[in-house]
Amino acid sequence: MSCTVARQRCGARSGCDMFWFRKKNDAPPPEPMLPATAAPAALSPPPVEAPSAPQVDLLRQWMSLAELQQRVIHTLAAEVAHTSAFVETEADSLSQRFRALADGAQEQTDRVDTLTSLAVGIDVDGKVVTVDEIARLLEDTLDDVVAKILLLSKESMSMVYALDALNGNVRRVEACLEQIDTINRVTQMVAINARIEAERAGQAGATFRVVADEMNQLSKSIRSVAMSMRDELMAICGSIERGHVTLKQVATVDMSSNIMVRERLDTLLPALVRRNDDIRSVIAEAAGGAGSISADVSGMITGIQFQDRTKQRLEHVVDTLNVVCEAFRDVMGSTRAAAPELAAAREPDVTWVKNLLSRFTMSEMRERFVAHVLDGEPVEWPEDSGTAEADDGGSMELF
Amino acid sequence: MRFDYDAGSGCFAMTGEFTFADHPIFQGVLTQIGDGRDRSIVFDVSGLSFIDSAGLGMLILAREEARKLGSTIRLRGPRGQVKRILAVTKFDALFPVEA
């Protein structure tokens, strides 16, 4: 609501102004109320004895004081009206700023709400997976990995021992082949001896000769088979040896460090879950705080809107001051009409006024009082008087 | 690593680092277990300063060998890296572990 301070010059009446609050399209202010005793008809007393000189001087002193009081009241009414307008303008401005603040606080609340949903977990294919679930999934996966490492280690060692056993078997087969070679050499020697004896026996040894030849052939066959078996056995030995080497390479890959990663994660995962819980807790507090700020700001806006009542009170104050001022003026006018010798009023009591003004701590207010009360000039404010804002770079006199 | 076997208590005291390189000597332990003379076997690992994944595999082989004969194996006094890795691999679910 906008409000202006209007000023009306009171025509012939002592050159002073009337101040009142006026809203747009308001009607002019009411006529001032006068005391019944101020009616000129009441000032037609019967002839009385002329006042003495001290009485005249005292009456002039009263007239002078009344003049000053009139100006002071008039200036005060102007100050109140102007200040009220200033307060109203500032209240409007504050109200707008608080509304902007309330909007900002609401946006902040919305953002915190979004953050709360983000802190709950991760959106995967439209489904929220909580940090707890992620931690459990990781733990289960690591348990599985550790179990497989152990199984791999056990099976590798089992295979190593199986190859060791196979290697032993091969060595024993080699020993058997050595025995076969020995037997074969003896058999061959027997065949040779049998042939010699057969030749020595002549015709009678023909049968021995046949047997000796067959034994010789048999020995050669056995030696040939034995050599083939040895070749195969050597090939098997080579394969076993290579398998053993390969298995050793697998089995000696130490996976204990990988297993110990599980220990590290056992520490990290609960810490991660705890931190997530802390974040959620802090965000919840922030959401509560943001909501509280919104409510406070809304309350402030409502409180500022009650400024209208303050304005109405000040209107009454100004109206009352104007009525009093008008009453002073009328009584003074009546007094001058009844006692023209008093028209030449005393000079204003400048000392009294200066003492009054020395109580003012605001220089610009003091200057207005000096201009109006002492110099009789109309009350004027600079264009930006009372509405200048401290943050516009202008200085503001506080005390 | 060194194995010290106490026939009276059926306890194998292990000292040093238990790795793949110890598999030939551990073959003797497996043979000893396979004899079935000890129904309650103890591996005192308090002297072990390190065990790798091959060592863990050999312990599991020993357990299976003992189970074939109805025997049990307990682990005694793990510490340091050995204690931590036994905990991480949840060996206490396979072997009774004594402090």
From TrEMBL, chain B:
Coiled coil: none annotated. One of its GO terms (molecular function) is anti-sigma factor antagonist activity. InterPro entries: STAS_dom, STAS_dom_sf. It comes from the Bacteria. Residues 1-99 form the STAS domain. Pfam families: STAS. PANTHER family: ANTI-SIGMA FACTOR ANTAGONIST TM_1081-RELATED, ANTI-SIGMA FACTOR ANTAGONIST TM_1081-RELATED-RELATED. This is Anti-anti-sigma factor. The lineage of its organism: Bacteria, Pseudomonadati, Pseudomonadota, Alphaproteobacteria, Acetobacterales.
